[in-house]
Amino acid sequence: MLQTAFNGLITGIIVTLPALSVTLLFGVLKFPNFAVGAMMTLAAYMVFALNVQLGWPLTIATAAVAVAFGGLLIVIDYLTFRPLRQRDSITLMVASLGLGFVLENIARLAYGNTARSFAIELARPFRFLDIRMNREQMITVVVSTLAMLAMYFLLTRMPIGRAMRAVSDNPALALVRGIESPRIIRWTWFIAGMLLAVGGVLIGMDRALEPPMGSSYLIAAFAAAILGGLGSPLGAFVGALIIGIVSELATLVIPPNYRIGIPLCVIALILIFRPQGLFGQPYIRK
Amino acid sequence: MSDMLAVRQLHAGYGEGDILKGVDVTLPAGQVVTIIGPNGSGKSTLLKTLAGLLPVRQGDIVLKGQSLKDLSAPRRVRAGLSYVPQEYNVFRNLTVLENLKIAREFMADAKTRGAAVISDELLELFPDLRGKFKARAGNLSGGQRQMLALACALAVRPEVLMLDEPSTGLSPKYMADIFETVRTVNARGVSVLMVEQNAIEALRISNTCVVMANGRVRMTAPADEVLGMKDLHSLYLGDARENAVAI
After folding, report:
1. How far is B232 from chain A (nearest CA, A)?
2. CB atoms A165 and B91 under 8 Å
3. Cβ of A165 and B85 within 8 Å?
4. Can you list the positions of beta strands (E) in chain B?
5. Residue in B89, B91, B107 closest to A178 by CB
6. What is the secondary structure of B34-79 as a DSSP string?
7. Is the pLDDT of residue B246 over 80?
8. Of A162, A172, A176, which has the smallest distance from its Cβ to B77's Cβ?
9. What is the tens place of the pLDDT at every residue in B84-112?
10. By the CB < 8 Å criterion, does A163 face chain B?
């Protein structure tokens, strides 16, 4: 039971980064971006290319791809979403679905469907209080925690982070307070890109690299973001941990194959009983 | 007296039709101009268009000789035009301090950007915000929120302050405070363009009154003259709008 809960915690921690990306992008751009799964996949394969094919250490490869991927998402936004910015959120959501298919299949075209893994040395798992923990899980905990702290610092202490929260809170008011929304949108894509690249690598370390790897976390990421309250970074973090632990613990009573249904049930329940999520504000149509 | 802001034959609106159908308004430097008129006359639309939230379809907006019509809303703020919307005028999920910080963080002028956020001037003008800086703006009372919105708009050291119904929904105490603050701000050199339903209170601190109806200016007159009119109520309720004589 303790081991299962711990595994759930790790799953939840892996989900924090994509969930945070979902909530940041939704907050600023006001549409659910269903391409986040495929974006993680593509970024993970980019890291694979540097790490395995070029022999770069995984940390350096991840850092390089995180920055490059942030830039790539700005370009993708310019080509895909910017022309549709004035359309409704459904149009943008459908565009993100299409983009997801394209990105995932670019990875498939380049590397096929075979499962691959990063070039990392195997290490013996160690035990603590009857919990078995391997090195990849430790890295996941440390990296995700650092990423969350960095995000907290950015969103609360830095002008650009405050501006992202302001645009998310009230886009029209942000304009008349002198905040250039195109600049904030670019920053949001850049930061989301970095988070997704790191998230992709963590998933690749936890499992294996294969084209559907990112998409398989999509529902969990959305469930976490919705549970926490779309647009609330703290909510995404708490939501991800809850989703991870609940999904894993549920396997004690239901067959593991049905685990995927848990986040969907959470989405349904939260939309019925508390649509604004745990930390979100009730939506006011202006 | 030179014109701080001149609105010339302004056309703007939502969708197909124009709500503003050729509006002319002039705000002389250092003065307070209050716009009154019945609901739907285009008063708020005028302020939104001046702020850059709605595009100018025809006509021009000139601030100190510079045309603003092609500038984005943030650039208009930097040019010196600050706007307080009627509702949703603070970032509710940000703290009071964050609201004040963000108001000046994106200004081009380094002096404005670098000035202390909590200054003696701020505390003197907005004593109600004292001790509230860590509170979430969404948790403030209506009056405190309005004060915060005003403080944010002033944080950019504007030449022109535009207020959309600043007294709406406020208690008599806050209403008096708001008008007193506007008067003080104006006395310090900020020109004010205000839309207000509470005409009598607003006109008492104004130099000029503009009456709008059906997207057009029906009358422009000195505020004290309008205050003395027997049918003042009907001017902004709309009954006498067709009878009003342009001065």
Report:
1. 32
2. yes
3. no
4. 3-12, 20-28, 32-36, 58-63, 66-67, 81-84, 160-164, 191-195, 208-213, 216-222
5. B107
6. EEE--TTSSHHHHHHHHHTSS---EEEEEETTEE-TTS-HHHHHHH
7. no
8. A176
9. 999 899 999 899 999 999 988 877 676 77
10. yes
According to CATH, the topology of domain B3-244 is: Rossmann fold (3.40.50)
Shortest CA gap A28–chain B (Å): 14
Domain ranges of chain A: 2-273
Residue of B102, B104, B107 lying closest to A166 (CB–CB): B102
Q: Where are the domains of chain B?
A: 3-244
pTM of the model: 0.87
For residue A276, what pLDDT is reported?
86
- Residue in chain B nearest A177 by alpha carbon: B103
Contact: A173, B156; criterion CB under 8 Å:
no
Q: How close B87 gets to chain A, by Cα (Å)?
A: 9
Query: Which of the following CATH numbers is that of domain A2-273: 1.10.3470, 1.10.10, 3.40.50, 2.60.40?
Result: 1.10.3470
ipTM: 0.89
Out of A163, A174, A281, the one facing B93 most closely (by C-beta) is A281
Q: How far is B213 from chain A (nearest CA, A)?
A: 24
